[in-house]
Predict the structure of Transposase.
Amino acid sequence: MVVESQSLEGLSADQLREMAARLMTQLRHQGAQLEKLTHENALLKRMKFAAQSERFNPEQKSLLEDEIEADLAAVATEIDALQQAPAVANLQEKKKPKRLPLPAHLPRRDIHHEPESTTCRTSGCGCRLLRIGEDVAQKLDYVPGVFSVERHIRGKWACARCETIVQAPVDAHVIDKGIPTTGLLAQVLVGKYADHLPLYRQETIFGRAGLAIPRSTLAQWVGTCGVRLQPLVDALKEAILKHRVLHADETPVQMLKPGNGKTHRAYLWAYAPGAFETMKAVVYDFCESRAGEHARAFLGEWRGSLTCDDFSGYKALIASGVTEVGCLAHARRKFFDLHAANKSQIAEFALQQFARAYDIEREAKELKPDERKDIRQQQTRPVLDALHQWMLLQRQKVPDGSATAKALDYSLRRWEALTRFVDDGRLPIDNNWIENQIRPIAIGRNNWLFAGSLRAGQRAAAVMSLIQSARMNGHDPYAYLKDVLTRLPTHKASRIDELLPHRWQSGAI
């Protein structure tokens, strides 16, 4: 700040007061700018030095780098499901390359499939059937570290008198005439989407176990399984939208643009029933952008209470009748960052009041909605009302544009949404429930750089929806996927809900 090099003599009292007011205004503005820059500098240092493990590694690979093969397999599976002409199917089958035999050194396990009865059931016959041969189909199985071969032996039985042949039918399989067991398929899916192991790494792991399955083959399996599992994800979405309270959040994922080899920012959206709902599930929706139209398309005609952050993409939903529920953790986070940057006393007091609200919430967590509402009205409401009045007073004292002003403005602007939970025991205090379900995606980004295509991202979202939902219900994702892939080919579409993670029972029929 520089004062003009002119004599102050001769200036009137009014002129001196005007100059002093102008200089004080400049001083406050410079102080606000300094506080803002100090705050931003502290945040940048925290991002740079506090999370070294999340820094970019040029050796990282794309989790979805083989998605072209997987996409092709998925498209082929969808086309095959629509084709009805057997002549076309036979022509395609003839063009398939001959499969190499499975290595002889792998252990074998014989599984026999025989008719229920070896008596000829032809009317008026009743003769004993004679075994005249067998058909053997081999399936490649895998348990961590060990490959084995299942030899499915289907004996042929014939009646000498009426010349009929009886044989046990071939069990339906998620990949028709494929060699992998459902256990091996589940292992590949869990490795890729739960353990964040790209297919090139899985190929190496399988090689150490005795059989290096080509990445292209693994990708084809993944693509086909993605198509087969999609009806489950559609049913899971339908079940979620029946709930009155939902959580929503989104996280960025880079997606490869076709043609130019460059990437752009896509988003993985996540939706889940409210934290106090009995159904534990999450559905991820991979979209090309963060535009609010994607949330509107997913929710459709649903109208309920949506717990979300202050992202503008949700505003159209709110305008159409969806009730906005704010996230108190987001408001608290603004003051936490402020306190971490400069030990602000204003931020410290606000954090203490937020802590009181959360202490009350922990006591009411296990109560019924009506009981939770009563406690919130009696204990939480006075704390938040006092905090609101204090924020209004503090806002009048701090300059516009400062970090403190921004933290206060966020809460004051959204106060009605932030405190809506006090009047409804079914509403959560924050959006942490869905943030916890989206965290595995953020962890996975340490191992991959981009989604290979829109279809690949959507397939990943579908499989990860089932895996994470299984985890939320206490299931082992491998056991869940193995059982579902085994039962899915013969399971009635009208009973698909029985296979959803929150209803699934191991070994149920």
About this structure: The chain has a mean pLDDT of 83. The two ends are 81 Å apart (CA to CA).
